[in-house]
Amino acid sequence: MAAGSSVSAPFLTPQYHEVRRPNRSRVAILHCEDYSQKIEEIVFRGLQLFQLDLRGKSVVLKPNLVDYITGNAINTHPLLAGAAAESFRRLGAKEVVVAEGPGHQRDTQLVLCESGYAPILRENEIRFIDLNRDELIPVKLRASYSTMKRLSLPRTLVQADVLVSMPKVKTHHWSGVTLSMKNMFGVVPGNKYGWPKNILHWHGIQECILDLCATVPINFVIADAVVAMEGNGPLNGTPRPLGKIVLSGDPVAADATCARLMGLEPDRVVHVREAAKFLGNSSPKLIVQVGETVRSPDVPFSVVPEFGFLRQA
Amino acid sequence: MTNDVVTKDLRVMLARRQLANGGWSALSSSSQAALESSAFACIALNSEFAPAHDQALKFFLRIQNPNGSWPAFFGDDHEGCWATSLVIIALRDNVEAVPQRLKAFEWLVHSAGEESHWLWKWKFRTTDRHVRFDPDKFGWPWMPHANSWVVPTAFSILALSQFPCACDPDGARRRVELGIEMLLDRACPSGGWNAGNSVVYGRAMAPHPDDTAIALLALTRNAQEPVVPASVDWLEQLAPTLNAPWSLAWCILALAAHRRRVDSLVQKLSYWPQLDQVEDTSTLVVSCLALDHERALARFGVAA
Lengths: 313, 304
Known about the structure:
The complex is a heterodimer.
Chain A: E1 25-31, H1 39-47, E2 58-63, H2 78-90, E3 95-100, H3 108-114, H4 117-123, E4 127-130, E5 136-140, E6 150-154, H5 155-158, E7 162-166, E8 168-172, E9 176-178, H6 190-193, H7 198-202, H8 205-215, E10 220-230, E11 238-248, H9 251-261, H10 270-275, E12 287-291
Parallel strand pairs in A: 1-12, 2-3, 2-7, 3-4, 7-10, 8-10
Antiparallel strand pairs in A: 1-11, 5-6, 8-9, 10-11
Chain B: H1 3-16, H2 35-44, H3 50-63, H4 83-90, H5 98-110, H6 118-126, H7 150-160, H8 172-185, E1 199-200, E2 203-204, H9 209-218, H10 227-238, H11 245-257, H12 263-270, H13 281-291, H14 293-300
Antiparallel strand pairs in B: 1-2
Helix pairs in contact in B: 1-13, 2-4, 2-13, 4-5, 4-7, 7-8, 7-9, 9-10, 9-11, 11-13, 11-14, 13-14
């Protein structure tokens, strides 16, 4: 149920408490034909395009790991998560963990096994933290788009030096798209708020994305658009191969770029447009593009009818 | 090792994991008591572990919210959450907890999914129709101010059903009936349950084993409804293929409650590698309950 889902209503007044938007943002689009062992080298070389100082820091990788349905491109691919972990280690990170609180399935171990994460985590000796059941810290929200004011959030996340959002690039029937910012819904703990994270729907999906991202800063994005999803996402859409991985230190720039790669207009996505006022840059003029150039597909991603206005003409 | 030995080992591990305040954390690496894990642990410990059980009882009574509910974790706000139903079940047979249990019972009877409100009913009937469900049939939310969902509704039905028929303040029996109707309404078209969305945007959603099992525990007296045996059949087919102990354990409990054979599943669970080292406390506890399923079902108020 999506009570409170918003399609396009604009925010009349800004509700953020501080502006973190950089003057300019860097985004790398990397070509990656398929999920293979080559992916680690691609990610490592991509990360070197950014001046990341990771020495001695704890890194939390937050993939999009929701549920499993055979044949559906629902989750961030486990090989990409493994490649990211290895690359951050090579760049000097003190500790790298993968952390997620699946939004649909209560049996996290089952999701890890069925999605192919369990062997990757085991082989690469990567610790996994179930954010649905982690220790919780009450946190005051740093924006007021929703009326929530406070959230109890996982200690692992609140205390991380570097948070890396690793979304699966998908369309979403309640929010239009689900990219690095929407991916943060997974950090809201099920043990307190339930499965799915319905309370965020009641407080407004777009509003909660903004409040969460203002409160828990995303330090880096590695978006999985090797095989994306279009149509009735986030679970029952159709796989759409794009052959891309998108990297950025700015989640707004990353999401705007992903939207363009999907043939969607980023400034028509409510949370991207609003986040561009205080969290990052969505304008191509303010984004330094490295790697490949942005090329929208000839046929934009299909979306549910309510979000037809997102598609580029 | 026999099942009894494995179960005892798990209980020993469970007692070792008890926190100084009497509760249990959700993950072994944490020191913050979580009410779901604590309630399940209390249900799982038998008379051999009376000191741990008594400590847990004191913990529950100490941290009950003024409104009669229980929080999701130690240090949480005082609004209350779905785990209240689990604590009611855990406090069963404790005479000294009767007043607190009655207060919790009252809170639970008055807790309802937001779709029970006329305004939201109207919205779900007119403008917000992409999820197929009947808002007249509502149950319990995970936390106040949200929709009803399958798992909190199933546990609330089990908790409220433990009270004597003569004791029916504020229409508790009607709430249980409505909750059962809600579960039947939210079943997946092919049988089974997920969190509570059966059809979205015209597309049937897949059931989950644990959600299905928990719903079936609350529906043991409703076997005449076609969706119930269909879901039991689905679960029975799926259970041997499961590769995660939490879901397998819930399947054992539900299948045993519906009088299906569970011997081979119990054996599979008892041989699970390093089960006592599982980080998730609730998985450890539910495994313990499944291996001693007759006792567990009695604690849930479900006759096998």
